[in-house]
Design goal:
There is one protein chain. By secondary structure, the chain is α/β, with parallel strands linked by helices. The chain folds into two domains: 144 residues, Rossmann fold (3-Layer(aba) Sandwich), CATH 3.40.50; 181 residues, 3-Layer(aba) Sandwich (Rossmann fold). The protein contains 14 helices and eleven strands. Strand 7, helix 9 and strand 8 form a beta-alpha-beta unit. The protein is globular.
Length: 355
């Protein structure tokens, strides 16, 4: 068997979900599951059960000095013990190890561990087109061989190219069903709604009045459904207020009670999902749950969840107007709060729900 490719990546939840397409492409090309050195501690939990992943280690903070970070020193020992293999460095934000250094923290750790640049492919060294989707860019990078392994890949690029995928284990789905029973669920269609985003100051918010009107419309269309409001513990105050404003027993607030693996199991059971442009929207698409995504300041042509139109609908404030031809213009002009409630409802009705 070929040596397991090493992928070095630092990104948020949604970025890590999108990375799974590249991990699968590399596992197919090199005929061996990938090892991943990731930034957030959630990465090993998120990627559990994927056959394209062998081992996941996480870095944590990139700003902590090496001598004060036992985790970084353990990672260096682990890297030294690995068999030489192709290494793909994928960083969304390139934090340099020092202002005078050309290396990022991740690249510096690789060099300290004796992984020479001849084994690297650095995604930042490849040109990404302005409107190229992140997944397509990473799949293009996955077709490149490091100089030390030129022409050594035993297989060609997979055809068709993979798309982001996650997995919820059967026992996790069973546990989620039991947990849903505590919310009063008896097998009704589950409409899952993510109303908050961690980076809402940058991405924008959608007014509570529109969320309330949308939930009422969804229940009118599917009166037998149970709506579950998703979110983190920090977002629970706002989701509780929304549930109280709707004042319908078919709307249940679960924010703060959704550890990551339960969230994945819940999405795997969902009839459909409505979400801001955030990690749970990416997870829904990766698990096959039909999802409506409210676009924020980030251009969805570069980062939206991937899927056919009957599975993924992206709603913007532009309506029928043409989209700008630049992500910079999109960031400057687009405002999530200008998306009308009617457009989100119409997009949900275009989905082919999973029954």
């Amino acid at each position: 068997m070929s040596p397991s490719p090493l992928v070095v990546h630092h990104g948020a939840l949604g970025d890590t979900i999108q990375l799974t397409a590249m991990l699968q492409a590399l596992a197919d090309r090199w005929e061996a599951p990938c090892d991943l050195l990731a930034g957030p501690a959630s990465a090993p939990v998120l990627l559990a059960g994927l056959p394209c992943v062998r081992e996941v280690r996480f870095l944590g903070s990139r700003r902590r000095p090496y001598l004060l970070s036992p985790r970084q020193r353990r990672l260096v020992r682990w890297l030294r013990e690995r068999e030489p293999s192709p290494c793909y460095v994928v960083e969304r934000w390139r934090h340099r190890v020092a202002p005078w250094s050309r290396r990022t923290r991740l690249e510096w750790l690789l060099e300290r561990a004796g992984v020479p640049p001849e084994r690297w492919v650095v995604a930042a060294g490849e040109k990404r087109e302005p409107l190229e989707h992140g997944v397509d860019f990473q799949l293009r990078v996955a077709r490149i061989d490091p100089p030390a392994f030129a022409g050594a890949a035993p297989s060609g690029p997979p055809d068709p190219p993979p798309r982001p995928r996650l997995r919820a284990a059967p026992e996790e789905v069973d546990e989620c069903r039991e947990w849903l029973g505590g919310l009063g669920w008896r097998g009704e269609p589950l409409l899952l709604v993510q109303t908050e985003a961690r980076r809402s100051r940058k991405r924008g918010r959608w007014p509570r009045e529109r969320w309330r009107a949308l939930l009422q419309r969804l229940l009118e269309d599917l009166p037998e459904a149970l709506i579950v409001l998703m979110g983190s513990r920090e977002e629970a105050k706002r989701t509780r207020a929304l549930a109280a404003a709707v004042a319908d027993p078919r709307v249940r607030d679960a924010a703060g009670d959704l550890p990551l693996r339960r969230l994945l199991a819940l999405l795997s059971l969902g009839h459909s999902c409505v979400s801001l442009d955030t990690g749970p929207a990416q997870a829904a698409a990766a698990l096959g749950c039909p999802v409506v995504v409210l676009a924020g300041t980030a251009d969805p042509r570069r980062n939206a969840p991937l899927g056919p139109p009957d599975r993924v609908q992206v709603v913007t404030a532009y309506g029928d107007r043409p989209w700008p031809d630049s992500p910079v213009v999109w960031f400057a002009e687009h405002r999530m709060e200008e998306i009308p409630e009617e457009a989100v409802h119409a997009a949900w009705r275009r989905l082919a729900p999973r029954l």
